[in-house]
Fold this sequence. Notes:
mainly alpha, binds zinc ion
Amino acid sequence: MEEPGSSCKKLCVSEEKRKVQEKWSNAYFVVPQGSDKVMCLICKQVNAMLKEFNIKRYYDTNHKMYDNFMGKERTTKLEQFQRGLTAQQSVFTNLAKSGEAVTQASYGVSLRNCQAEQAVQ
Length: 121
Ligand SMILES: [Zn+2]
């Protein structure tokens, strides 16, 4: 039996995590990648950084000039980066899908060839 309230606790923790990640996206232009990495939206570099301290240092070292984007400008910039990222990912997904289709098609062809051979014998 699951303890009552334990699922809520889990939910609250992930909610908390999501808020932290949103804050990081806004402050340092990073998005989470998997469970233990973040990707820099500016240079698309994936780094194992889970401490805000590390992310801040990375941002300060590499992309400090993005501090020029403030307030609404910053939000717009962030949205631009995120949109670009989504577009890129959907291209990858489409490529993967078409690759799958090719594999299935060639499998179908070889299957038909095989049946044809059997019919001849
Ligand atoms: Zn970067």
